[in-house]
Specification:
The structure holds two protein chains of two kinds. In chain A, strands 2-1-7-6 form a four-stranded antiparallel sheet. Chain A has a three-stranded antiparallel sheet with strand order 3-4-5, with no helix packed on it. By secondary structure, chain A is α+β, with helices and mostly antiparallel strands. Chain A has helices at residues 3-9, 12-35, 91-94; strands at residues 41-46, 49-55, 60-65, 70-76, 79-84, 102-105, 110-115, 126-128. Chain B has helices spanning 14-35, 43-49, 60-75, 85-88, 101-108, 140-154, 248-261, 263-273, and strands at residues 5-10, 56-57, 116-119, 124-127, 159-164, 167-171, 180-185, 195-201, 204-210, 215-218, 221-224, 238-245, 276-281, 286-288, 297-298. Chain B is 32% helix and 25% strand. In chain B, a hairpin with a 2-residue loop joins strand 5 (159-164) and strand 6. Chain B is globular and about 55 Å long. The two termini of chain B are 37 Å apart. The longest helix of chain B has 22 residues, at 14-35. In chain B, the strands form four sheets. A seven-stranded antiparallel sheet of chain B has the order 1-5-6-9-12-13-14. A three-stranded antiparallel sheet of chain B has the order 2-4-3, with helices on one face. A three-stranded antiparallel sheet of chain B has the order 7-8-15, with no helix packed on it. Chain B has one domain: T-fold (Roll), CATH 3.10.520. Classes of the chains: A alpha+beta, B alpha+beta. Chains A and B meet through strand 8 of A and strand 6, strand 7 and strand 9 of B. Strand 8 (126-128) of chain A pairs parallel with strand 7 of chain B, so a sheet runs across the interface.
Chain lengths: 129, 302
């Protein structure tokens, strides 16, 4: 069966379906292009140990066990905050939403850091140009 | 020097660190004053205005600077030449002025480091022909970075990094015991801080010469500041050359000289003298000396 006979046998609905498939797969490329540059990650350390590595662009709420209890970290809209923590001063909660850098709850030993794109010049002390 | 200077030091006390950094900056300023091409009272200007007339007594700094410059000129067969001044002066990279061919040819006859007479016994420098000009731009920043690092050391700093624009001197180790890590700019990128590779540097200097530093585009051709002393026109075989040596002045001057020589001759010279270097040629291909291959961490392997 060659391509022409195959095409002759297709109905309008088949063709529409194929077109849909093509559009769907093409849009995948654009989707990935959109998402890939945003490959920032959120690192959550609790009590000196890494607890979570999460993408910054996925909304999620997690709970980690610090030295004094549970700290709740929320990721939403490419931002991070500490929602709740058993510390006395609540400084970490008051810091609110952050987009870069990180948030720390010192009393409960929870460190939340946003790590940028890997191709950024992290760890370089100087640039020769 | 209207360039960015950064000094980073490791010290137990922040007041010791501040004091040493202050001294380091002073050293750079002091050298810059002595070597400034544009200020009429600098030692370099004194030598230049007395070209063809008389020898000028200079400080040990300028004597050392020019002696090293001459060494690099000899090793690069004049591809680096500190007497390029009369040709460089014809170009204006701000106003995008490209001189006409006749003017270039006329001034090229004044470019020859053999006519720069250095008398070490009497600490004098003499330019044989009237109109000759020493332009220390290709060696000054590296030299100053190295000297500033010496000053930091003298003030008890065991580890530090001095960067004058892209001329970097790193010594000692960071508090975590690792060497300083230096990024090499991606010459193809628009952004100044886009890095194409990194390497660790300990008690060494690195300098880069690139066609993106000072340039203008005229009729589709890029005119940059790395002018060949042989032709009077920008050298065209490389996009950038980064050279690692034990001395800032040598890294800086060799970066210029090797850039102008091009990848083939340049690599040969580096291997003969035993220096390490990284060249990105016109097409974007990477050339490295054997000693650096394992140490270079490429950022975006294609």
């Amino acid at each position: 069966m060659n391509l022409r006979t195959l095409l002759d046998k297709t109905t309008a609905a088949d063709r529409l379906f194929f077109l849909l498939l093509i559009i769907l797969s093409l849009s995948g490329i654009f989707f990935i292009r959109e998402i890939l540059p945003e490959s920032q990650t959120v690192l959550i350390d609790a009590d000196g140990k890494p607890a979570y590595v999460l993408p910054l662009n996925e909304d999620k709420t997690v709970s980690v066990e610090g030295s004094e209890g549970k700290t709740i970290v929320e990721i939403r809209g490419k931002r991070v905050r500490i929602m709740d923590s058993p510390c006395r001063n609540k400084l970490c909660i008051r810091q609110g939403w952050v987009e870069t850098g990180g948030v720390v709850c010192l009393p409960n030993k929870v460190v939340v850091t946003i790590r940028g794109h890997e191709e950024n010049d992290r760890g370089v002390d100087a640039v020769t140009r | 020097m209207d360039t960015l200077v950064t000094i980073t030091v490791v010290s137990r006390s922040s007041s010791d660190a501040d004091e040493a950094i202050d001294k380091g900056f002073h050293e750079i300023e002091r050298l810059e004053k002595a070597a400034n091409f544009y200020s009429p009272d600098s030692e370099i200007s004194q030598i230049n205005t007395h070209a063809g007339i008389s020898a000028i007594k200079v400080s040990s700094d300028i004597l050392e600077l020019l002696t090293k410059a001459r060494y690099v000129s000899e090793k690069t067969d004049g591809a680096f030449d500190p007497t390029i001044g009369p040709v460089i002066a014809l170009y204006d990279f701000h106003k995008k002025i490209k001189p006409d061919d006749a003017a270039i040819i006329k001034n090229l006859s004044l470019v020859n480091y053999h006519d720069m007479v250095i008398n070490r016994d009497q600490s004098t420098v003499f330019l044989r022909k009237k109109g000759m000009l020493i332009d220390p731009g290709g060696i000054m920043k590296g030299y100053a970075a190295g000297r500033a690092a010496e000053v930091l050391k003298k003030h008890g700093i065991v580890s530090g990094i001095v960067a004058i624009a892209g001329d970097i001197r790193a010594y000692g180790l960071k508090p975590d015991g690792s060497p300083w890590r230096v990024g090499i700019r991606d010459p193809g990128a628009q952004e100044q801080d886009k890095v194409m590779a990194t390497l660790e540097l300990r008690d060494m200097s690195i300098s880069t010469s690139g066609d993106y530093e000072r340039f203008f585009i005229l009729n589709g051709r890029r005119f940059h500041h790395l002018i060949s002393p042989k032709t009077g026109y920008p050298a065209e075989e490389c996009q950038s050359a980064s050279i690692i040596t034990t001395e800032g002045a040598l890294s800086d001057a060799f970066a210029t000289g090797i850039f102008i020589l091009g990848p083939e001759k340049g690599m040969k010279v580096l291997e003969e003298i035993g220096l390490e270097g990284i060249i990105i040629d016109r097409k974007g291909s990477l050339h490295t000396t054997p000693g650096i291959r394992g140490r270079l961490e490429l950022k975006n392997p294609a």
